[in-house]
Amino acid sequence: MRSGTPLFVALVVCLASGAALAQYSKSAGQNAPAAVATEAYVDQRGQQQYRQVLRKAEADRYGNAAGNQHDLAVDGAFDGQTVAVLHLYTAEAFDFSLPKAALAEKGFSVYRWVNRPPAPEELEAKLKKACQLWIISGDQRLLSDAHLAVIKRFFDSGKGVYIWGDNEPYYADANAVAQALLGVEMRGNLMGDKVVGLQKDKGTTGLLRNHLLTTGLEFLYEGITIATLQPNQALTPLIYGSEGNQVAAFYDRNGKRAILDGGFTRLYVKWDTAGTGRYVKNAAAWLVNVERFGESVVASELRQGSPKRPQ
Prior knowledge:
disordered N terminus
């Protein structure tokens, strides 16, 4: 095994020692997870023997580890949890069916408002039943200051927020929310439509290495035309696009989590290209914020004292 083995072993020990982490797979935090394999060898007496070894997991056709067992969360980990979606851009047959199906594998249900947001009072009431909110922006601002206040209270309570924009001008509400929560915005329009790998150096094209969000991902489709996040010290860069622009970043401070992303076409265009389904599942699993809320947001069968689901 290469130098990633110690991290893999440390993660296994960590995951085995804490019931609050039972929702995470043994691959959590590894871009190129290891898998146990059996190999034959000849011992000192010339006899054939067998031993178990760690090898890089089998890859899919795009180079990412194959199989749901290499997602961040085990299947069904979040049964009973709801992802609320303000789906304000629905052109080009973007019906959210592909992300919805992926999220269902981890137990999430999806509640959407399509094309227009509800009244702020309804939004606040419905969000009480949600573990996170995703905002998919259009080219006109539809969220009022009252909506932004509701979203900020939700965020400040520790619930996750995913803010999706795309190329100019499809980030009107994304920027309104991002400014209200994080003091940042996205701008511009760059052609993407490429698969990016892992970063070789900090700030270069590719994915952040060895983070929960990029579990099982060595390659990811960046989206077609994409916006660029503006520099902000509160955010950690997550994806740099093929043009060297910052496509996605995350906030993880003071018990609060958010992701800001300038490439929402990834959710419905070339879905079967590298890594999109896994990335969506990882993002939702991370935004649940189990590290803050503990077992209350995890499927009952994964809680302490319950029979554990195979991983």
